[in-house]
Each structure stands twice: as structure tokens, then as C-alpha cells.
Nucleoside-triphosphatase FGU65_09010 (Methanoculleus frigidifontis), 179 residues
Amino acid sequence: MTQNLLITGRPGAGKTTLIRRIAESFGDRRLVGFYTQEILSEGTRVGFELVSLDGRRRVLARTGMQSTCTVGRYGVDVEGFEAFLASVPFSDPEVDLIVIDEIGKMEWCSERFRRVVREALDSPTPCIATIAMKAGGGIAAIRDRNDVALVEITRQNRNTMLPRLLAEVREMMSRATGA
Ligand SMILES: Nc1ncnc2c1ncn2[C@@H]1O[C@H](COP(=O)(O)OP(=O)(O)OP(=O)(O)O)[C@@H](O)[C@H]1O
């Protein structure tokens, strides 16, 4: 029985919205993790921002940022991302659900993030994450793990998937607590 649910789909399919809705449904449980959202300037995307589940924000990437890791037009602040990750108690055994949005090319530049993902998936604590659909290499290896349930979201199925995924996550959590 897998304790890990990965949500994939094309850019803009609705992955972040869906994982947020799932997390919000378990507001009475102990959740840790983060979302990634766009930074807009006059309607144009100029970067990405991390938002922890307890509401702290940090820039992940921006256009024109000098970095050893660039993805498209964006330079990733790998050091800042790693400091942010260090402040999130992913391995707290009291946690009911780990939420990671997303396992993507920008995030994958961070060695610490790769460790956080592997430890989260290896741990008995249930984990839900969004993951890039086309990325290869180490990200493809995560998608292909046989201890994850991989679900593809589209504009057509994103609303009907929500109740099914909620039931799946609820079951993962009750298995973990033995309840
Ligand atoms: N169920 C939904 N109903 C209506 N609009 C939605 C729904 N899900 C997502 N959207 C809208 O679609 C857009 C893309 O959604 P979202 O950011 O969740 O997609 P994503 O797959 O995470 O994108 P990316 O690949 O860029 O991270 C947003 O404007 C969002 O408000």
C-alpha cells in the first residue's frame, strides 16, 4: 500500500490548485510543506515564490537572477530555497501529511530538496506532491517509483478528481495512524 500520492499534468492543468484544496480539507490535521506560486508584475510572470503551509514566503526564482541554476528565463535562488527548506519540519514524526508543490526542474537544482523528497517518500508519513510531467532524469525516476500513486490532472478531470483524491489521502492518513 502506497503512502505517497503524486499529482502530475501539463503546465496550467491545475495541480497547485488541487493540492491546495486537498491540504485545506485537512485543516484539523498536522500538515507541513509548501506551495509554489507565480510572482506577477503588471500581469506578466516574473518569477516564482515559495509559500510554507504556515504562511511564510520566499522567492524561489526570478527573471534575470544570476544563478548557477537557470530554468528558461528564471534564475533560481538555490541557497535561499535551501534555507527555506531547513525551516520546514518535514521529518517531524508528529506530522500527519507532508505537502510538496512542486517537484520540478527549478527545485531539483537543490541537493537538499532532492534529499527532502526522497526522505518524505521513504518515510511512513503520508506525502502528497505535484510533479512535472515531462522532466526526465531524477524527476522521472521519482515519477516511476513503485511506491507512489501517480495521477494525471487535466482541465477536464481536475474537479471530478478532487473527491477521489481526498478519499485516498484520508485513507493514507488513517493507515499511518492505525486508526
Ligand atoms: N478546478 C479549477 N477550476 C477553475 N480554475 C482552475 C481550477 N484549477 C486551476 N484553475 C486555474 O487554472 C490556472 C492554473 O492553475 P494552477 O496554477 O493550479 O495549475 P498548475 O498545474 O499548478 O500550473 P503550473 O504547471 O504552472 O504550476 C490558475 O489560474 C487557476 O486559478
About this structure: The pocket of adenosine-5'-triphosphate is lined by residues 9, 11-17, 158-159 (CB under 6 Å). The longest helix spans residues 158-177. The chain has a mean pLDDT of 94.
